[in-house]
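USER: Please consider what follows.
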Amino acid sequence: MKSTSYIFLAILWMCSVCWSCNDWLTVDPEDSVSEDDMFSSARGYESVLNGLYRNMAESNLYGNFLSFGLINVMSQTYDVSKSKTKSFLQAAGYKYNEEEFKNASRLLWETAFNCIANANNLIARLNEAPDEMFDQELDQKNLMLGEAYAVRAYVHFDLLRLYAPAPVLNDGNKYIPYVDYYPCKFATRLTVDETLEKIIFDLQKARKYLAWDTTAMGANNFSNQWNYPNSGSTANNMFYGYRATRFNFYSATATLARVLWYRDGESYPDPEQLEGTEPSSDRDMAARFANMIKGNSTYRYHSENDIRASNLEERKTIKMTKELLFALWKENHSEEIGSYYESLSMNYNLSDFDGLYKKPGYSNDFRYKYGIYTSPKGGYRLTNRWMPVANLSNEEPIIPMIRLSEMYYLLADCLFYTDKNKAVTTLYQARNYRGLRTQLNKNMERDEFLKLLIEDARKEFAGEGKLFFLYKQLNEKVIISEGETIELGSKFTLPIPDSEFVLK
């Protein structure tokens, strides 16, 4: 499928990626429009919304650093012992204050807050815009608001997970700001708890505005999340299609589950605010939302048949798109990822390969049978999830952000203390979907349970940037290889970068 037909709308204007509260748009002098002109029509708002996702897909954010790049070195997913790239070697040794890593961290920080500034400007403009400018029958204005709130929350959450301690080690100090206004000249740092409250509040608003996805009309447009809308007045209107590459009700729900699981508080008012409900723990609420996703037929694990072919050209899928609740689209991503399998493949060599895949009873795990690529030069073992495949060109630009398997891990962990049987069964289901059919002990202790969960996550998220955050949330030792671990403690928290973005 050609990228021009895949994108849900044509890019009319490009959003700036330079950090500044005032540098909202880069205007092409040959075809210039003012910011006010852009916000004079629904089509202009659509373009700005698309710009938010382009911001997220920048290399300094989810296009590289927080997907296939440095974040995986920090989780020891990659063995970089033969690398010559200084930032990778520094990340592997958690030498955050050395020049190359500091520069990468600064660029991530600034790109993230640029994206947040763009979201804030869009939210402010939408709140001021007349309702009649938008398609009211299809709730277009609220859809845009919901997506912008979700983007703002999602990016803030990952900044929190990088630059502040996890709640399990929370020291009550102030770390990052939560910027929810535009323009900004300085921002006040908040505690971890205060930041999480704001993230959760924004995600609650996002779910409210995106509830259109749960209606009959919404479901009709959402069910084929990688295609045009199905029928009706939205048929062939790209703005209402390709909902997996934008925030929708279900991906906002999954994000809220992720945040509640991370916070792991004891008793809070029910975020759903259902009449007569008692305060619930974060684990209870996260489990409820994860079950909502798990029970939705839109998302399902790919079968082994989908990826069985030994020849990559014959595969039906590489990135297992049926399992993706949310993904970004980056048109030139295949060009950027080329070095993954070629000149820089030593940077992405999967660590502890034998320990993960060659244990007795693990030979049927099809992530091992079909998910590993061995480079011709050097013999490095790499995940093939980023591999450009000619007959799967529609998958090449996709950057996975939330995968169904995360909801299984989340649900299993949240259930462990209240219903160990269901917890172990849920973890078994996640393993079984990948070909691991060995029965699990339903009376296992917590340490054994976490060992199995992390072991599966190390294979499931290889090269996708999720593992570092899992280790940090659980305050578990980072595994280098079988029998070799690192206890990070305070090194789970990156230093706040030196930046033009003023904090107090």
Residues 99-128 form the longest helix (30 residues).
